[in-house]
Amino acid sequence: SEQISLTAQQQAIAIAQVVQAMNALNQAAKESAEGISQTKIGTHKLNETALELKEMV
């Protein structure tokens, strides 16, 4: 009975660690998506500026 209790506690700790790791991955993916979005916006603005410069020349 004591061994079963100890094993259950160890499994609960392991599950909590897996959940924590999954949450960290989720946060990293979210931050990566936000970075990609910002890069897309920056690229669009740069393209607009390049077109404006091209028209000036």
List the keywords.
single chain, 57 residues, 1 helix
Description:
The chain is mostly helical and 57 residues long. The protein has one domain (1-57). 96% of the residues lie in helices and 0% in strands. The radius of gyration is 25 Å and the shape is rod-shaped.
Summarize the structure.
This protein has one helix at residues 2-56.
Strands, helices and their partners?
Elements: H1 2-56
Shape: rod-shaped
End-to-end C-alpha gap:
84 Å
Mean pLDDT, nearest integer? 97
Helices and strands, in N-to-C order? H
Biggest sheet, open or closed, and with what strands and sense?
none
Tell me the domain tally.
1
| Radius of gyration, in angstroms, nearest whole number | 25 Å
Quaternary assembly: single chain
The number of helical runs is: 1
Proportion in β-strands: under 5%
Coarse structural class: mainly alpha
Q: Which stretches are low in confidence, meaning pLDDT under 50 for 5 or more residues running?
A: none
Considering DSSP H and I runs of 4 or more, what fraction of the residues is helical? over 70%
Strand runs, count: 0
